[in-house]
Structure formats: C-alpha cells, structure tokens
Amino acid sequence: MSHRTTPLTETLHAYLLNVSLRENPLLTQLREETARLPEANMQISPEQGQLMQMLVRLLGAKKVIEVGTFTGYSSLAMALALPSDGCIVACDVSEIWTATARRYWREAGVCGRIDLRLGPATETLNGMIQQGSSGQYDFAFIDADKTGYADYYEKCLQLLRGGGVVAFDNTLWHGKVADPAVHDEDTEALRRFNRALHSDDRIDLSMIPIGDGLTLARKR
Asked: Which of 29, 64, 119, 155 is deepest in the core (most CB within 10 A)?
C-alpha cells in the first residue's frame, strides 16, 4: 500500500519497461527514428502508447480522433489496437512530419484505418460536427498546441459518444504547471485547462502521472 504515486527513478523506469512493455517492432523503429529529430521531445513514451492501446481495446473503440500526429507513433499504436473496420481521423498541419507517419502506416498495413487530414484541427473538427458526426466517436487523443486544448476539447467532447474518452497529453508539462515561478503562455494555458477540467461536471476525470502527464476525461 502507498498513499502516493511511487517516483520513477531511471532504474525503476527501466524495470517497468522490462517487465511490462510489449512494443511492436515497427513502433520501436519509429520511436528510435523520431528520437534523432530536434523535436524528439514531442514523442510520447512507449508505455503511454501501450496504455492508449489498452484504452482503445477496453472501450471497444472503432472510431478515434487524434489531434496532433507528429511522426505517427500514437496513431500507429492505436491503429494496431483497432479492429480491421476501425478508423482514426488524424489531424496535423505538417506534411513533413506526417510523411514519416505515412511510411510507417504503410509498412504496418494500417493505412486503411487512418484518415490523415492536413490543416488546422479546429477546422477539421468543425467540419466533422457540421457533417453530422456528433456523438459517433469512441476515443480522442489530443497532443497539439497547448493554447488550443480548450477548443479541441469542446469539439472532441461533442463528437464523442456517451461513455467515450478523450485523453490529453502533457498535462503535467515537465512539472512547470506546479511551479509558481513559471508564467509562459503554454504553461498558463495548461493551468487554466487543468482547472477547468477539474470543475467540469460533464465528465469523469483522472490525471495519470505517465509520460509527461496524461489526463483522461470520460464523457458522462
């Protein structure tokens, strides 16, 4: 028993991966390729990817939204967990980063499960709502510009069915959200967002200290 989360030392984190992580070889390859990029810190951790696969399976999800695709690790992980008739609407603005994602999706044989839509995610989500897709999605993952989280959340919540889940990455923001000396725009946006979720009675809420903080909101 413990009254708080056990801190992860390097040794304990290595142990966690050694006895828990079951990573598809293509996911490992993609993660290692992404680690060589200057923007490598935008990559989610493999244990978080595995948790998201578990959530997709537990929800019996077939329809998923992703806001922020980067090089495709999270979308590939989720696509591998979806049934053959499942689909991810993946929103991103970068043709360069998503070119890597497309390459790995093809190699994994999951291109048919991922609908990549390049352009501002707000426009993509608004279009989905206008086309009558509200209440039709099972799971959403938001990992994009932090100042946009509140808007992405409202749109994804509308698109989710009752009992669906939306997950938000980086909600601990390397600890900066709890540091009173930090006041940059992204940190302040995440602080406001975290507080707003805490008081939102439309959802059930859990913030998980995995990766850089993963918040789960279940639509009531």
From this structure: 64
Q: Which residues contact 183 (CB under 8 A, 6 or more apart)?
A: none
> Residue 15 and residue 164: Cα distance in Å, rounded?
32
3-state secondary structure labels for all residues of the chain:
CCCCCCCCCHHHHHHHHHHHCCCCHHHHHHHHHHCCCCCHHHCCCHHHHHHHHHHHHHHCCCEEEEECCCCCHHHHHHHHHCCCCCEEEEEECCHHHHHHHHHHHHHHCCHHHEEEEECCHHHHHHHHHHCCCCCCEEEEEECCCHHHHHHHHHHHHHHEEEEEEEEEECCCHHHHHHCCCCCCHHHHHHHHHHHHHHCCCCEEEEEECCCCCEEEEEEC
pLDDT exceeds cutoff 80 at 2: no
Measure the CA angle with vertex 135, ends 129 and 136; round to 5°.
90
pLDDT tens per residue, range 53-71: 999 999 999 999 999 999 9
Which region holds residue 116: left if phi is over 0, alpha if psi is between -120 and 50, else beta?
Answer: beta
> Which tokens in the block code for residue 180?
């009173």
Q: How would you classify residue 49: left for phi > 0, otherwise alpha for psi between -120 and 50, otherwise beta?
A: alpha
Pairing of strands 214-219, 160-169: antiparallel
